[in-house]
Amino acid sequence: MALWLEQASADFESRFAAFLTTKREVSEDVNTVVKAIIEDVRARGDAALADYSRKFDGLDFTVTPMRVSEAEIEAATAAVSSTVIDALKLAAERIERHHARQLPKDDIYEDAIGVGLGSRWTAIDAVGLYVPGGTASYPSSVLMNAVPAKVAGVPRVVMVVPASGGAINPTVLAAAKIAGVNEIYRIGGAQAVAALAYGTGSIVPVAKIVGPGNAYVAAAKRQVFGTVGIDMIAGPSEVLVIADKDNDPDWLAADLLAQAEHDRGAQSILITDDPALAKAVESAVERQLKLLSRSETAEASWRDFGALIIVKDLQDAVPLANRIAAEHLELAVAEPDALMAGIRNAGAIFVGRHTPEVIGDYVGGSNHVLPTARSARFSSGLSVLDFVKRTSILRLGPEQLRKLAPAAIALAESEGLDAHARSVAIRVNLAG
Amino acid sequence: MALWLEQASADFESRFAAFLTTKREVSEDVNTVVKAIIEDVRARGDAALADYSRKFDGLDFTVTPMRVSEAEIEAATAAVSSTVIDALKLAAERIERHHARQLPKDDIYEDAIGVGLGSRWTAIDAVGLYVPGGTASYPSSVLMNAVPAKVAGVPRVVMVVPASGGAINPTVLAAAKIAGVNEIYRIGGAQAVAALAYGTGSIVPVAKIVGPGNAYVAAAKRQVFGTVGIDMIAGPSEVLVIADKDNDPDWLAADLLAQAEHDRGAQSILITDDPALAKAVESAVERQLKLLSRSETAEASWRDFGALIIVKDLQDAVPLANRIAAEHLELAVAEPDALMAGIRNAGAIFVGRHTPEVIGDYVGGSNHVLPTARSARFSSGLSVLDFVKRTSILRLGPEQLRKLAPAAIALAESEGLDAHARSVAIRVNLAG
């Protein structure tokens, strides 16, 4: 069902290049609708939010308040099984420990001529976290977004989550509590993004908005970008598995399907030097597909975007992997380090046969928010760095200024900026 | 001429809040035009570039080749005065030394249960640098963008610069040579951005595009974002000067005008506890305005967006500064550290009376590409981090997988993701 490509065939390069540019997402043009919603929320604030929630979620805020109460969060948490609560806590602890290592250090120093230079890092004051409703409402994503924000020192993390009929997935509320989310509002869509960016009577605006969402949420994030910061716009997920012949085809099939079950636009790719393994994996995928509750989604993804690529030598997988720049890269080989050394473009690497990508989705400690759709060529997964910002510091005394003044004046004059030149010259008695 | 605000007046808060949200830019809607240009360059490649350059820059690539030759770069460099060349070299060296300290370190480690975790940083393969034409063609900006890319280890830095009639500012070419730019093309506008993002017959595509530009360039960068990475979209520049009474009004006036001369939308703000100083600065601005070759621009900026704010106590300037979140913040006070401790939102801080912001524009060593229009609340100036990306690494053996499997399976099941659960369970003999 999936695409079959062999490096040895004459048309490999052209077919691989075409495969790389396959579009996996229908981009709905919702910009006009979203623009109107944002303007409405800016103009009417809470009243607009109430109207949209009544219309889209069947919610009456005079009955079910917009803000989720402490009591509701407590009750939800109590309703989740202790097995799941313990798993969430283990995940949160591991995420926290790993992300604490990412906290950047200030660097304040004096150079050889006595100029003080520095980089000082501070946490963003307030961050909004968008959590989708329905089946895409993942507690693990709440942890992956909120825990790094808290590790960064963000004092105020505000979560928004649409609640059709008022109900919010209790595990999502439990995860928010464990992660230390400060405020939770029962709103979603472009209107929730607008409320976070511009504020309303009851919601104080944030400085940055993170988290996944549908086409409306993505468009709203793009539109408010500049007024607030945003994280990456996530596309459909993908996994690339590089495997030698000594693998259990069932293990690899399960990994490919774990990606495919996310979304019809997800992509699962196997690269191997063993055609027999590829055939066996293909059969295992067919078998396991029947066992999945989301088999329809997984089957569509595998049929439309799945691929089995046969290379002559496993080392040939490296340049292909760098061009694919996969969100997730599994190295299911005996000597993963030899391949890993050559990998430049990948969101995350899962090393060896005993590291299924799914561990990284939940409890590995690393972040599961990773660059999709080849964007690992230029961007990174979510980290503490996304929740801090750097202020650069410069400090000169009269002596340092005298030393650097002539060069600064020369450059300012060459750029035709008189006031620039004067601002330096006047301090060292060189102004005209 | 500029706005005068006193903290002591009853309507201060409402007037300050209004001042904060003043729009300083006319946002031209050029999206439709830009979309057509990008599609044309994707479809027709070099032929489209040739047509646009003929139309907009009066250039014939069969006479003046699109790519700037080594000989032309050499000749341009030879034509620049040795004073300016030396100043560029000093600036480049200082920028390089400062930015080398920003190179992130890989962090590969094993946790308490033997799980291997890590962050590995690699340089982006290829970066495009947009340089505007005409009067906004600043050699210093070439250094500020290209040097950090080279420090990061980017092997291929490609510069594009529109050249009306074929001519490129020789100092820009000299700066590119000093910074180690690898390829230079005589193209500009949305078509240059499209060529960098998608490639043409003669230009190999890049993975990220940085650098300032007009409304067409900014719109094109937004549209290609996702296919390639982009830097921030720069808005008009601003400076906030916090000053005590013991300042020379002429120094401060020069600093305010150095910002104002950039752009009619630039903003210069003085906050002081001394109304007499504010009055003196205002007079000095009027006097110095007459001396500037760009007096018309500076006067418009100062009249429309300049402000003098009188606070009761200098410490009251700190919360105001955090709300303004200025691109540039000068602390022209006797005890700058006391104020600096409270500053959270600022692109760069210039400490003490002998650190005019202009030093940071050219030769301080820190970057002059900084967050504008209040975006210092959530973003940072350009740094080496903008030219690298992080791959996260996870490595489990059978023992670690057994330990983490139950929690991962519990979370996968709670999210209704069967194949996720199976991908872990099958490896620890727990699969159904």
Automatic annotation (TrEMBL), chains A, B:
Record-linked SUPFAM superfamilies: ALDH-like
Reaction equation(s) it catalyzes: L-histidinol + 2 NAD(+) + H2O = L-histidine + 2 NADH + 3 H(+)
Physiological role: Catalyzes the sequential NAD-dependent oxidations of L-histidinol to L-histidinaldehyde and then to L-histidine.
Active site: E327, H328
Keywords: Amino-acid biosynthesis, Histidine biosynthesis, Metal-binding, NAD, Oxidoreductase, Zinc
Organism: Rhizobium paknamense
Protein name: Histidinol dehydrogenase
Pfam (any one): Histidinol_dh
